[in-house]
Each structure stands twice: as structure tokens, then as C-alpha cells.
Design brief:
- It is built from 4 helices and 8 strands.
- The chain is α+β, with helices and mostly antiparallel strands.
- The chain has a single domain (about 5-30, about 60-135), classed as Trna Endonuclease, Chain: A, domain 1, CATH 3.40.1350.10.
- A 4-stranded mixed β-sheet has the order 1-4-5-8. Strands 2-3 form a two-stranded antiparallel sheet.
- A hairpin with a 2-residue loop joins strand 6 and strand 7.
- The two termini are about 35 Å apart.
């Protein structure tokens, strides 16, 4: 599992503990993962991906979506990214992951529909985002 997974799981656990009445309104849409592969007419084809697309999977969808309006927003979309501390030549260096072009496009689409979209890199950042979102 990636570090992003651990951060996201901890964020969801915190949210469910802090807001039990809203716990079922913070969801993850499983848009990632391995797909079923089959040999068809002598070539390897990803059949799970085709089915997933037909069922509505869209590249770039945020990791978490909170279906609770607040202020001017219809809901909150949260994208989990990681920030690591690594060392190069004995010096500490922060490394980050960034949104893909599909994620940026999806962000723009949902923001135009009245949703707030935020990228977070730690549980502490997630907590601050949620608390700020509910203040409005």
C-alpha cells in the first residue's frame, strides 16, 4: 500500500470519529486498482477497465467526496497526495506527488458545479480543511 493510502485511511477514521452523524456521507469512489486481464484473439486485453468505464469510472475523480453542503459549496472533494522526506547527498529533501492532468480537469469540472476541491498531504492538513469547511 502507498503512503497516500495510509494518510487517507487515517483521515477517514478521524472524520468518522469526529463526525459520526456524517460518517456515511464521506465516501471513496474506487477509481484505482488492478483490472482484470484476459487473452482475447491472441492479445492481452484489460477487460476489467472496459467494464469499469461502462459502469461510470472516470479518470481523475477525487479520492474522497463529502456530500455535505457548507456555505456556498454543494460538497467537498478531497484529493490525497503524499509528501515524503528523503535524503539526497546527506541532506533532507521533501518530495511530493502532484495531480495528474485528468485530476486537474475533474477539479475544474466540479468547481464549476459549486463544489469545493482541495488537495491534502497529511491528516493534520485534512483536519484543518474539514474544520474550515464547516465554519462557513
Amino acid at each position: 500500500m502507498s503512503q497516500e493510502t495510509y494518510v487517507q485511511q487515517a483521515a477517514v477514521r478521524w472524520f468518522r470519529y469526529e463526525y459520526p452523524e456524517l460518517a456515511k456521507l464521506l465516501i471513496h469512489i474506487p477509481n484505482e486498482g488492478k483490472r482484470t486481464m484476459k487473452w482475447i484473439k491472441g492479445r492481452l486485453v484489460c477487460t476489467g477497465g472496459i467494464r469499469a468505464k461502462d459502469e461510470g469510472v472516470v479518470k481523475g475523480v477525487a479520492d474522497l467526496i463529502l456530500f455535505v453542503p457548507s456555505g456556498d459549496y454543494h460538497g467537498l472533494c478531497l484529493e490525497t497526495k503524499k509528501e515524503d522526506m528523503s535524503y539526497k547527498d546527506g541532506k533532507p529533501k521533501k518530495t511530493k506527488t502532484y495531480q495528474s492532468p485528468e485530476q486537474k480537469e475533474w477539479q475544474s469540472l466540479v468547481e464549476n458545479q459549486g463544489f469545493k476541491y482541495v488537495v491534502y498531504r497529511s491528516v493534520e492538513e485534512f483536519i484543518a480543511i474539514i474544520r474550515d469547511y464547516f465554519k462557513k
